[in-house]
Design brief:
The chain is of the alpha+beta class and 278 residues long. The protein has a single domain, classed as paralog of FGE (formylglycine-generating enzyme) (Alpha-Beta Complex). The chain is built from 6 helices and 12 strands. A hairpin with a 2-residue loop joins strand 1 and strand 2. The protein is globular and about 45 Å long. The termini are far apart.
Length: 278
């Protein structure tokens, strides 16, 4: 009897261990993303030599509650603790990353110099042009690169090659101009119609998650990335990359492969972000 009990316990532990290996790890409410090459055939990076290292990513876009806890203020147009923060510039986002890192006793990832204009910023409309460099070995929060964002949105190593983040049906996973208001809209994109339909951002995590358990990577708000828009790994430019579409945008903007742009000092009611870290 005792021998059979021991065997049963060992077998049970083996099953638990096997199940846990297939479950994404969590760390400080972040989701672990196993690195590798791109598996999503709809990704613009599929078939390239780009390899992504392991990282942790926030399962939701940064909410207003999270923003207020770090900064003490709320710039958002649509107010609500569980709504994504918006009306934040790229500079606001990198500053948030550093402030949150310090609050959690992590080493800030960014070196931010507000007094020196960035010579690599070619924008004619950015009146800030802070010089922002990275401390690559730091364990603090940061914005994802375009490639990291697209890798996570596309399901990483668990990818099923969906067009949108978690589905081939945009309405299952994305908030965009047709479905983010009082009624489901049809016809051509039309701002007066969107406005009269009372389109807004939506609470985090209402739609289905993708293969990694990440929410709203298609739609709700567009998300800032680290990179200059002009070319992958380019050291200068006029715009920063935004990914994922938003409640104002068309359905094509919510595709995993879609690449948008915005000047770093730009702000909009459909502009937010999520964070990653080691």
């Amino acid at each position: 009897m005792r021998k059979r009990l021991i065997i049963l316990v060992i077998a049970t532990l083996g099953i638990v261990s096997a199940c846990s290996q297939g479950t994404p790890k969590a760390k400080d409410n972040l989701v672990w993303v196993k690195g590798g090459t791109f598996k999503n055939t709809k990704s613009g990076f599929y078939g390239t030599s780009v390899t992504i290292p392991d990282f942790y990513i926030s399962p939701y876009e940064i909410t207003q509650q999270e923003w207020v806890q770090v900064t003490g203020s709320n710039p958002s147009t649509f107010q609500g603790d569980n709504l994504p923060v918006e009306m934040v510039s790229w500079y606001d986002a990198v500053e948030y990353c550093n402030q949150r890192s310090l609050q959690e006793d992590l080493e800030p990832y960014y070196n931010i110099n507000k007094d020196t204009k960035d010579p690599e910023n070619k924008s004619d409309n950015d009146n800030m042009k802070w010089t922002v460099t990275i401390h690559a070995e730091a364990n603090g929060y940061r914005l994802p690169t375009e490639a990291e964002w697209e890798y996570a949105a596309g399901g990483g190593q668990m990818s099923k090659s969906y067009i949108y983040s978690g589905s081939n049906n945009a309405d299952e996973v994305a908030w965009y101009w047709r479905n983010a208001g009082d009624q489901y809209l049809s016809g051509e994109w039309n701002w007066p119609v969107i406005e009269s339909n009372k389109n807004t951002t939506k609470s985090a995590g209402v739609k289905k998650p993708n293969e990694l358990g990440l929410y709203d990577m298609s739609g709700n708000v567009r998300e800032w990335c680290w990179d200059w828009y002009e070319d992958l790994n380019q050291a200068s430019g006029s715009f920063r990359v935004v990914k994922g579409g938003g409640w104002i945008g068309g359905v094509s903007n919510t595709e995993v492969s879609f690449k948008g742009k915005f000047e770093a000092n730009g702000k909009g009611p459909d502009q937010g972000f999520r964070v990653i870290r080691k």
